[in-house]
Amino acid sequence: MSTPALTASAITPLQALDHWAPIVWLKTNVYAYPTLEVMHIVAIALVFGTIWMVDLRLLVRLRALDQIDVQTLAKALLPWTVVGFTLAVATGLTMFVSRIGDLINNTAFIIKMCLLFAAGTNAAILHARGRMDAKNLLTRMQAALSIVIWLMVITCGRWIAYL
Predict the structure, then answer these.
(1) CA-based torsion, 95, 100, 103, 109: positive or negative
(2) Which long-range contacts (CB under 8 A, 24 or more apart) does 67-75 make?
(3) 3-state secondary structure the chain
(4) What is the residue-averaged pLDDT of the chain?
(5) pLDDT at res. 107
(6) How would residue 17 be classed by pLDDT, with cut points 50, 70 and 90?
(7) CA distance 21 to 97
(8) Residues 55-105: pLDDT tens digits?
(9) Please, are residues 139 and 132 in contact by the beta-carbon 8 Å criterion?
(10) How many CB atoms lie within 10 A of CB 51?
(11) Quick one: how far is CA 151 from the chain centroid?
(12) CA 119, CA 98: separation in Å to the nearest integer?
């Protein structure tokens, strides 16, 4: 017969998290997790859409955006990118916490997290180099890399459910 102290100490942090009331509610409420997923997808669309516009402006001539300086465009879209990214992080972390046991062993999830780090690093390097210039080959290469990385992030995010 075990004592209550021994039983309590035998629970792992993951098991305790799995039994935490908000996580139990998220797992048992028929609308909670799908709503969270929709919010995450909308957030990703906002992040990718705003980044896509700046990257495309750097890569190709867009008649609708030719009159707008790339710096002005990036500055105007940044608040929307930040809102989308903040919402994506909040919803993503909530989904992660509710399925941590599954996700830490999911190859698509691990690759997605590495790609997010790569996207952030690429963006930090791009902005640390100073003014974005569409005529600069390195800037254009980073814009192309950004698009590829974000498409891969989205793809891995979708594959999480199937791997």
Answers:
(1) positive
(2) 70/132, 70/133, 70/134, 71/131, 71/132, 74/132
(3) CCCHHHHHHCCCHHHHHHCCHHHHHHHHCCCHHHHHHHHHHHHHHHHHHHHHHHHHHHHCCCCCCCCCCHHHHHHHHHHHHHHHHHHHHHHHHHHHHHCHHHHCCCHHHHHHHHHHHHHHHHHHHHHHCCCCCCCCHHHHHHHHHHHHHHHHHHHHHHHHHHC
(4) 90
(5) 97
(6) confident
(7) 12
(8) 999 988 767 666 788 899 999 999 999 999 999 999 999 999 998 888 999
(9) yes
(10) 22
(11) 11
(12) 25
Say which amino acid occupies 94. T
Give the span between the Cα atoms of 118 and 142, in whole angstroms.
Answer: 11
Reading the block at residue 29, the tokens are 């409420």
CA-closest candidate to residue 100, choices 154, 44, 1, 27? 27
